[in-house]
Amino acid sequence: MEIKTVGIVGAGQMGGGIAHVCATSGYDVLIHDVAADQIDKALSKIAKNMDRQVSSGKLSKADKTSALARIGPAPIVENLKDCDMVIEAATENEDVKRKIFEGLCAILKPEAILASNTSSLPITRLAATTDRPGQFVGIHFMNPVPVMELVELIRGIATEEDIFETAKEFAISLGKTVTLSEDFPGFIVNRILLPMINEAIYTLYEGVGSVEAIDTGMKLGTRHPMGPLELADFIGLDTCLSIMQVLYHGLSDSKYRPCPLLVKYVEAGWLGRKIGRGFYDYSGETPVPTR
Ligand code: CAA
After folding, report:
1. Cβ(196) – ligand 1 distance below 6 Å
2. DSSP alpha helices (H): ranges in the chain?
3. 253: CA distance to ligand 1 center in Å?
4. What percent of the chain has pLDDT over 70?
5. Are residues 245 and 172 part of one domain?
6. Does residue 119 carry a catalytic annotation?
């Protein structure tokens, strides 16, 4: 099946990034969110991120203009009815995702492919709530989507082979390298990354080191581009906690227990960079550690 028009549900940092790379790769894109102002915010963020690519010579001005013209707002879900593929990139909450799929199945053409950008929820279980489990696939992008080379593809137990191949060709057409992961909690990247981030938070919680010491240690000691606490803020502490809970419950192993300090930060609403406070305070020019 040929994919021409891609619908994105969820206009947060992931949805916006996915819309960005789809548009610069020649797809028509419609972006939907329950909060209409979120769509406008995403569109202006996409334009700004494309400007970064223009200034570093990765995108021409003309290509930026045509890519932006390919992205349209979809204030109501019905606007997505002619999409060939819809990628759900909403919050990591299974109930929210189920409701989105229910709404989509009611309006999409029967041959349309449904994909989820979930960072850890079981693809098989999400697919089973839809009218098309065979046409359902996990396409997991990394943040920031325009920069990161990887896309994890996850096959649910019911995913049909030709649908999986179409999703693979689609991800490759976005200039990404694809890894295939079986449908287990956290897939590959988050199964490995999140326990490391959680351990960094335990290291802070137990007073082994300060925010700065932990991040400097991992940046300069293991050559990570960001320290684990800075990265946690970048991903979003609510997302980090959701993924740890999926690992903890899904694998029934206490080694995945979310750090109580992570839980506390999320309860406080200190969700990281997106709200201006997490392990760092982002209100000034340079981020300042909050502990
Ligand atoms: N859109 C477009 N371009 C962007 C961008 C965006 N959103 N963000 C950064 N860039 C570009 C910059 O313009 C710059 O381009 P040039 O090199 O061509 O000038 C380049 O990326 C580097 O950016 P900066 O110079 O601003 O900053 P940096 O060198 O500190 O790099 C970073 C920023 C790329 C984010 C880097 O710190 C990094 O790689 N961090 C780790 C990110 C990571 O691990 N992501 C995965 C998270 S896990 C995940 O996503 C899965 C999940 O489910 C939780």
Report:
1. no
2. 13-24, 36-55, 61-69, 94-107, 123-128, 161-173, 189-205, 211-222, 228-235, 237-251, 260-267
3. 32
4. 100
5. no
6. yes
Look at strands 28-32 and 71-73 and give their pairing: parallel
Say if ligand 1 is within 6 A of residue 241 CB.
no
Q: Which of 49, 190, 198, 242 is catalytic?
A: 190
What separation in Å is there between the alpha carbon of 143 and the centre of ligand 1? 7
Say yes or no: 246 and 193 in one domain: yes
Using pLDDT thresholds of 50, 70 and 90, give the confidence band for residue 265.
Answer: very high
Task: Tell me if residue 152 is catalytic.
Answer: yes
* Helix 189-205 vs helix 228-235: crossing angle, to nearest 10: 120
**What's the whole-model pTM score?**
0.95
Domain boundary among 181, 212, 228: 181
Mean pLDDT value across residues 140-160: 97
Q: Phi and psi at residue 36, in whole multiples of 5°?
A: -60, -35
